[in-house]
Amino acid sequence: MAEEAARAARVLHPDKHRMPRPQQRRVLTVANQKGGVGKTTSTVNVAAALAMHGVRVLVVDLDPQGNASTALDVEHRSGTPSVYELLLGEIPLSEAATQSSASENLWCVPATIDLAGAEIELVSMVAREQRLKQALSPAALDELGVDYVLIDCPPSLGLLTVNALVAAEEVLIPIQCEYYALEGLGQLLSNIDLVRSHLNRDLHVSTILLTMYDGRTKLADQVTNEVRKHFGDTVLRTVIPRSVKVSEAPGYSKTVLGYDPGSRGAMSYVDAAREIADAGARRGRNGRP
What we know:
It comes from Pseudonocardia charpentierae. The chain is an alpha/beta fold. It contains 14 helices and 8 strands. Helix 10 links the parallel strand 6 (about 170-175) and strand 7. It is globular.
């Protein structure tokens, strides 16, 4: 009980439990082509947890559904300056990024419905895989002054996801603790290897986050053990529980930390973010030890 109270305090009183800034800026792509694994949920809640605890974070919403933009309470109606115009080179990052109401340390480049046709438009462009990397140049990110960039990908392995993998140095993969959890993961890892070989030699899987854990089932423990056995220390110690509060929060344009900061889901995301932040404080360039 005392431990739970201490964890709740870290959520409810973030100024007293600040997280360390990384030695160097970290750019993480959050990817898994399997839908429904908690990818967007993990992106926005890890970002919010870092931001609430003193770390400056930019979320790039690269999913045409715009769910990350919704959860961060950022305008994303058609015509809003967005990641679409950013990819086309029509506006700079400083015009595309909007401060989120979730935290003064949190910015978001929103996704509008215009992004749905972007993959077709990108096909004919020069350096089509490099568009996001060019937009997220060190100078542009320095202007915002962010410590972390989290890129939320669509649930596919198309050109938008390739752009995200080229723009990042690290990949964070959410894996749900359910049957078929590792289905399709081999294809994702194969694509990451291809991008590393041909487009971005610094890319690597730095973080795996287990989501939707249901402690009442043996299956959850079996999946957890299998993932830890296969990926070792890449897997965060923190596991995100299956939670109604986490699912409800986006409906109110909030992260779970804003919707119910004392909930198990909020506490778990703060713990996961702290693990990521502590690793960033220890590691050098590219998030490597």
